[in-house]
Automatic annotation (TrEMBL):
Residues 20-81 form the BTB domain. This is BTB domain-containing protein. InterPro entries: BTB/POZ_dom, SKP1/BTB/POZ_sf. It holds the Pfam family BTB. CDD domains: BTB_POZ_ZBTB_KLHL-like. It comes from Phanerochaete carnosa (strain HHB-10118-sp). It comes from the Eukaryota. Coiled coil: none annotated.
Length: 488
């Protein structure tokens, strides 16, 4: 909130009464004259604001600027005033009012707006779900998700992505929520148990925040021991590191030091620069700009995410290049985390590499903590690409393996209805499946023996030809996957 000068219009009744004791000016320059007593009772936020001692003024009260437009602020105030409540034709009108009510801690207005939001849940379930997730309204999110789930039939095995849970649950409103909220919606609609999770909104506590972690920074202390440092860097959580500005200059990262505030050290030996990074991220950044042996491999996705944020925010190509190299190395084992990190920061090559690595794996139940920070749009793009890969693989199996497509589908379905087909030597799987499920029966080669055997002596039936055939199919699968359109 700040003062707003210039030519302004006056709001309609009852917000145009001259003896009102406070004036709010909206972003479209409309003045609302309001009684402090009403807002003080309705909101602890305004109560605290009006409790502050104001400078004496001989004229009319100084206006207070708000970021809301007049239409939104008018509806918000009417939910607080002893007048008729406003009506909302659609969610586009209601959403900003509800958001403002939460922002200004107007509890009663928030309850009224939430009730109105629920009224739209039957007709616009996914839109209501997205609004509820964005505004941290878990009960409303659950209501909307439940209504959506009961109103639709999903087909996870369909070649049409829009028929699957991931395709049907995504709308133009979903980019406004996190991938984690979208992931939990998909799990809910699939009926997949989520142990320990009672909320669509709650962030999964997978690690401690930086200021609670114990990190050994001995390597940095030793690197800049004695007179090797020319500056002391202080993190936002108060941890100090001795460093040398030359390393930041050579890495193109001096903007981080320039943005910080500088002050003299108590002993007047080295200047102290307060940088806007937590201690864990600052320590990792120093390691990245420092020469070996201080430079170490970083495998924790949260730490890599923080460094990627720094490289992007401050536009440091050298740090970004080093991080890209690191995530490429992690792709085989940490494909989902790498994809989320790369796609969110616009690293197209690394994102595509990770997505193609994930094409051979199941994604339905896989969660990563980076989902809590990434837009649902990023995750949805991966799921759509993954589905295209699954369809492509199914087509190859159907064309090349007699009866293999049905058998492969059955095996995949037996493991989990939500998991796509994996590339696991389909011909061998088809032929050897009976050996894994029964102890006796006719030989797969000649049919004369009552004992299963992959190498039947009487007919020379062997697994080797199966392996060769399966390798041909696998090569065909890889070729077909390479033709699948890249990520958007």
């Amino acid at each position: 909130m700040s003062n707003n000068q210039g030519k302004r219009a006056t709001a309609a009744h009852p917000f145009n009464i001259d003896n009102a004791d406070v004036v709010f000016t909206t972003s479209d320059a409309v003045d609302f004259r309001v009684y402090k007593s009403i807002l003080s009772v309705a909101s602890p936020f305004f109560h605290a604001m009006f409790s502050l001692k104001q400078p004496a003024s001989l004229g009319s009260p100084e206006p207070i600027s708000v970021s809301e437009e007049s239409e939104v602020f008018d509806a918000l105030l009417r939910l607080c005033y002893p007048v008729d409540d406003p009506t909302f034709a659609d969610l586009s009108q209601l959403e900003p009012v509800l958001e403002a009510a939460i922002k200004y801690q107007l509890d009663e207005a928030s309850k009224l707006a939430c009730s109105l939001l629920c009224g739209f849940a039957a007709a616009e379930s996914l839109h209501v779900f997205a609004i509820a997730c964005r505004l941290q309204l878990d009960k409303e999110a659950l209501l909307a998700a439940s209504m959506w789930k009961t109103s639709r039939n999903f087909n996870e095995s369909s070649s049409n992505f829009s028929d699957t849970v991931a395709g049907a649950c995504y709308t133009s409103d979903m980019p406004n929520i996190t991938a984690a909220c979208f992931y939990r919606l998909l799990q809910f609609c699939r009926g997949t148990p989520m142990p320990g999770l009672s909320s669509f909104i709650s962030r999964c506590a997978t690690s401690l925040p930086p200021y609670l972690r114990q990190q050994d920074n001995t390597d940095i202390d030793l690197l800049f021991d004695g007179d090797q440092a020319d500056v002391v860097l202080r993190s936002t959580d108060g941890v100090q590191f001795r460093a040398h500005t030359l390393l930041f200059r050579l890495s193109g990262a001096t903007v981080i030091l320039d943005e910080g505030s500088c002050q003299s050290a108590p002993d007047a030996n080295l200047p102290i620069v307060k940088v806007q990074l937590d201690s864990e991220t600052l320590a990792d950044l120093i390691r990245m700009v420092a020469p070996s042996p201080c430079s170490v491999s970083i495998t924790d996705s949260r730490r890599l995410w923080s460094l990627a944020q720094v490289a992007t925010r401050y536009e440091i190509p050298r740090i970004a290049a080093a991080l890209k190299k690191e995530v490429r190395r992690l792709t085989p084992d940490r494909g989902l985390a790498v994809y989320l990190l790369a796609a969110a920061h616009g690293w197209k090559e690394e994102a595509e590499l990770a997505a193609r690595a994930l094409a051979h794996r199941s994604l339905g139940d896989v969660y990563d903590s980076l989902m809590e920070d990434v837009s649902a749009a990023v995750y949805h793009s991966l799921l759509q690409f993954h589905h295209q890969c699954v369809v492509a693989m199914s087509e190859v199996i159907q064309q090349r393996v007699e009866g293999g497509h049905k058998q492969w589908k059955e095996l995949s379905h037996a493991r989990s209805a939500t998991r796509p087909i994996s590339v696991i030597l389909p011909v061998v799987e088809k032929e050897l499946y009976p050996f894994a499920t029964a102890s006796n029966g006719p030989c797969r080669g000649c049919g004369s023996s009552n004992t299963y055997s992959s190498n039947h002596k009487s007919c020379g039936y062997k697994v080797s030809p199966l392996l060769l055939s399966s390798e041909e199919v696998e090569r065909a699968l890889d070729a077909r996957l390479s033709e699948v359109s890249t990520l958007c």
